[in-house]
Amino acid sequence: MKGYGMLKVDQAGWFESEKPKAGSLDAIVRPTLIAPCSSDTHALHGGLGDTQNLILGHEAIGEIVEVGNLVRKFKPGDKVVVPCCNPNFLEKDVQGTGWANAHDDGTFFGSFKFLAKKNGVWGEFFHVNEADANLVILPNDVSAESALMTVDMMSTGFHGVELAEVGFGDNVVVMGIGPVGLMVVAGVKLRGAGKIIVTGTRPNCIAVAKEYGATDVVNYKLGDVVEQVKDIVHGQVDRVIIAGGGQETLAQALKMVKPGGIVSNVNFFDTKDVFTIPAGLWGLGMGNISIRGGFCPGGALRIEKLLNVIRNKRVDPSKLITHRFDGFQKIEDAFILMGKKPADLIKPAVSIKW
C-alpha cells in the first residue's frame, strides 16, 4: 500500500509499505478524514529517534474494511472514530493501575501506538488493535470534523483540565492557545472556572479562545507573563495548565499558582529540555503545590463521552479547523502547512474519498 511519512529524520515523502493484517480482535481501516498534528512534525524532526520509512498520522475518522473473527461490534463499511491512544485492554497494567491506559506496556505513551510503535493513519489502510475497545461508530448527529477533534485535541486538552481538578470559581491560567490549549479553555469553562486567563499572540487563536470562554489575554511579547497575570487577579491563581511553550513555562507556572494549587501539563517537551525549579517557588518543598503531567486516556469510552459533550452542544471543536484539503495526495500539503505554522493556522484537515 501507499503511505506518507518519514523516509528518515528530516525527510518526508510517499513510499510503499506492507498492508497491515488484522488479528482476531483487530480491525483494518481506511482513512476518510485526517488531521496533521505538531506531534507528527516533532516525529519527523527526530522526536522518535533514528526512524525510517514510518507512515505518520494519528488523528483519523475512517471506514472499516476488515475485522478479525472475534470482533463483535463492528463490520466492514462502518464509519468509525479512531482514538489516538489505543491501549491493549487485556493487559493487567491497563486493567488495574489508573493511568496505565496511556502506558500499557510499562513505558511512557505505551498506548500511543501510531507513530511510536507502528505505521500511522496516513496510509491507504491502517491497523487498530482490540477494535471493540478502541473504536467508536461515528454518530449521525455529530459532524465528522467535530468527531475528528475528539481523538487527540479535545481529549488531550480536557485531560489537562482533569489533571488540574478545576473547580467552580477557580481562577485559571492556560499557557498556550494552539488547538490543545483552546480545548483546555473550553474544558475549563465547562468546569465552572471564574477568570480564564490565556497566554498567546495569534489573533485568530485569541478570537477562538474568547469564544470558548477566555476572559483575559496575556501577550508574552508585551511584558513578563507572571506580572501581567498577577495584575489581573491581584495575586495568584488557583490552577495553571500548560499547553504550549518551552521549558521556562514550569517556573512561570509555579510563580503564578497559589500555595495548595495545581500546575497541570499536557505539553510535549523535548528530550533536551531541563526543568529548573528554585526551591522557593515550590514553598521549599512544602507549598502543597502539585505538579502533574499526563498523556490523554485512550479507548472507546473516552471518545464516546467527548462525543456526548458535542452532541449536547456544550462545545463545538470544529472551530479549530481553519484549513481544509481534499484528496489522499493532499496529506502532504497539509503536513507541510502544519510544519510552517502560518499565522492564520490553527488546525488543517484532509477529506479523503476512495
Summarize the structure in short.
The chain is of the alpha/beta class and 354 residues long.
Would you write up a description of this structure?
With 354 residues, the protein is α/β, with parallel strands linked by helices. The protein has two domains: 2-138 and 316-351, Quinone Oxidoreductase, Chain A, domain 1 (Alpha-Beta Complex), CATH 3.90.180.10; 157-293, Rossmann fold (3-Layer(aba) Sandwich). The chain is built from eleven helices and 16 strands. It has helices at residues 38-47, 92-96, 113-116, 131-134, 144-164, 179-190, 203-212, 225-233, 248-256, 300-311, 331-340; strands at 2-8, 11-16, 27-34, 54-55, 60-67, 79-82, 126-128, 136-137, 172-175, 196-199, 216-218, 237-242, 257-265, 290-293, 321-326, 347-351. Strands 3, 5, 6, 7, 8, 15 and 16 form a seven-stranded mixed sheet that branches. A six-stranded parallel sheet has the order 11-10-9-12-13-14, sandwiched between helices. The protein has a three-stranded antiparallel sheet with strand order 2-1-4. Helix 6 runs parallel beside helix 7 (203-212) and helix 8 (225-233) runs parallel beside helix 9 (248-256). The longest helix has 21 residues, at 144-164. The protein is globular and about 60 Å long. The two termini are 14 Å apart.
